[in-house]
DNA sequence: CTGAAAGCGCTTACAG
DNA sequence: CTGAAAGCGCTTACAG
């Protein structure tokens, strides 16, 4: 059945160390090169990965830890990572943690056991346990979506995103504003995004601007509950959700309560999910470049793995997309 | 740094074959069991996967081939597979082919090289090349979402889905019907789903029922183009899309053309994507149980791998969900 | 129940 | 440039 390096060596009339050298780009004479190449083609030989890894003690696998599989952001980022790794002969291994932090830590150690060459971490939150794990395993790690001074990271410009949105909202004439955020444990979304928003409001809003902040989870269902409560005791002209999902939850709530968007209530979000331009009214949002983030993450990871210099932190641009869900007041 | 089985053996004062036997559930005396266990705990020993696989020539990895990562159906199915595999100490490896059939075939061979124990194939289309690959690798394969007499498979009841929808549409009084399908190369969606629909129309529709069939791709953007064309030269009371994405494209087109849903045009789809109940009007659809399909696929796969008997074909129930997008006429 | 030995398919110094 | 040999960390008959 499957040929081994010994078979190939024998068939080509050389030693297996020579075949191995050929395989790994070492120098061999033109003559032997041809012999070996021919046999390899002929028998369609491919080296056994396990044997390689056992000796080399490393692999060309990059592990990616994701908090969930069913989100636009995750899918797009993964696709980007996968494409870039593939073109560089690396393989992607995915560990889905279903938002369970213990599994996140476990996944890091598991990847280390499997001798992945590097780990890309899409975490919502970076705890001491994360840092400890990263330190212990001694494998390059790249954080995506969050930043931390002790780790390499690649982030979307959340502060800018919040700022652009805040500025836009004020310029559209909104003064009764509700911002639904998320937990501060998620620094990128919970803190930076909101702070950028606040900063813009402070700069452009003037004194008559009234902003109320609420907190909800990343789930649409909870966003609906939160939105229900808000609309019961508040009369904002706009609700800004910290994610498109939250904004979608707000829209759903408005529909249920026969509140017309954007005439009676404007809504905006963050993310730039595909679906946001399919719905009616189309959602105003700040688009993050997830696909590009994934590709960049992969190429940075490869540089880390191969020991090339690589920037400690990369910040990706964002883009405000005005659509129908925000009205002029 | 990392201990090997020899270290453990030495530390415990036994031979490494004994440790190995202990690890693999062979019989050891109570006494040695305790000694070994203690050392393993103490040093947090975990066997090297590569060495294991090199000898055993197989792994506890199940490869999953998916046509795309950014779809509700795929994500949900993957989550189901992953959860079930995890609880059974198997690992999931994902190969995303971005709808490129060559990569699909390559992925099968790649998985074989990596000695995965089984392959779960989420393919839209089964060609001779697929069958050849499956045969050549000699590894258990389970097809999900499509059926084929030569392969184990797990499918959603597409015929029933189409039938339920057809019946529902007729019962709601629709007689001017447009059905937007997809290529017949995708047998499940392109043929079975449509045929079920046709069958119901034939049974319940009577003579005055006019159904026109169109074909589009799985992309929303193309669905929009198709829908534009349809609405230009046709005046149906309802458009049924073969997938929720197509239905979403139809809705978008209706919105753009100021056609009110469902008063002027009803719309329905298939899939039961989460988003379909968040939008307004909420989309009438037939729900497939992707998560359950994933779990079942994983458990069937494990049975195939371990040589237990397993049904050649499994058909999963579907569920019609009437919502706001379909009007009574 | 236990251990010594061979071997899985590679790679890596080390000689020549 | 090339080859013989050792070794990566396991498992698996085979004796005892």
From TrEMBL, chains A, B:
Q: Does the keyword DNA-binding apply?
A: yes
Listed CDD domains: HTH_LacI (cd01392), PBP1_TreR-like (cd01542)
Q: Which residues form the HTH lacI-type domain?
A: 3-56
Entry's Gene Ontology molecular function annotations: DNA binding
Q: Does the keyword Transcription apply?
A: yes
> Which SMART domains does the record associate with it?
HTH_LACI (SM00354)
One Pfam family linked to the record: LacI
UniProt keyword list = DNA-binding, Transcription, Transcription regulation
Superkingdom of this entry's organism?
Answer: Bacteria
What Gene3D superfamilies would the database entry show?
A: 3.40.50.2300, lambda repressor-like DNA-binding domains
Alphabetical list of PROSITE patterns matching this protein: HTH_LACI_2
Q: Which PANTHER family match?
A: LACI-RELATED TRANSCRIPTIONAL REPRESSOR, TRANSCRIPTION REGULATOR, MEMBER OF GALR FAMILY
Q: What is this protein called?
A: LacI family DNA-binding transcriptional regulator
Supply the source organism for this entry.
Answer: Paenibacillus illinoisensis
> Species lineage, top-down?
Bacteria, Bacillati, Bacillota, Bacilli, Bacillales
């Amino acid at each position: 059945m499957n040929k081994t390096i010994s078979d190939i060596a024998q068939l080509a009339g050389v030693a297996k160390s020579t075949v191995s050298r050929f395989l790994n780009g070492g120098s061999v004479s033109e003559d032997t090169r041809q012999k070996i190449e021919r046999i390899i083609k002929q028998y369609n030989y491919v080296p056994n990965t396990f044997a390689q890894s056992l000796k080399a003690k490393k692999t060309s696998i990059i592990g990616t830890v994701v908090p969930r599989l069913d989100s636009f952001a995750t899918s797009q980022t993964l696709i980007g990572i996968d494409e870039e790794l593939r073109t560089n002969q690396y393989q992607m291994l995915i560990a889905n943690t279903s938002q369970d932090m213990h599994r996140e830590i476990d996944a890091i150690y598991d990847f280390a056991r499997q001798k992945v060459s590097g780990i890309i971490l899409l975490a919502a939150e970076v705890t001491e346990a994360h840092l400890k794990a990263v330190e212990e395993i001694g494998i390059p790690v790249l954080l995506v979506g969050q930043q931390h001074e002790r780790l390499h990271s690649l982030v979307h410009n959340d502060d800018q995103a919040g700022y652009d949105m805040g500025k836009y909202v004020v310029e559209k004439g909104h003064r009764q504003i509700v911002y639904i955020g998320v937990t501060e444990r998620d620094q990128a979304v919970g803190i930076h995004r909101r702070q950028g928003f606040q900063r813009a409001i402070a700069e452009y809003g003037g004194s008559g601007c009234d902003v109320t902040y609420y907190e909800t989870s990343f789930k649409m269902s909870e966003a609906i509950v939160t939105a229900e409560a808000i609309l019961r005791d508040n009369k904002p002209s706009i609700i800004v959700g910290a994610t498109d999902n939250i904004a979608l939850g707000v829209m759903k709530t408005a529909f249920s309560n026969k509140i017309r968007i954007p005439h009676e209530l404007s809504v905006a979000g963050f993310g730039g999910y595909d679906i946001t331009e399919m719905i009616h009214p189309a959602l105003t949002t700040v688009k993050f470049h997830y696909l590009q983030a994934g590709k960049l993450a992969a190429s940075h990871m490869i540089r880390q793995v191969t020991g090339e210099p690589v920037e400690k932190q990369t910040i990706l641009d964002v883009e405000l997309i005005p659509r129908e869900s925000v009205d002029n007041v």
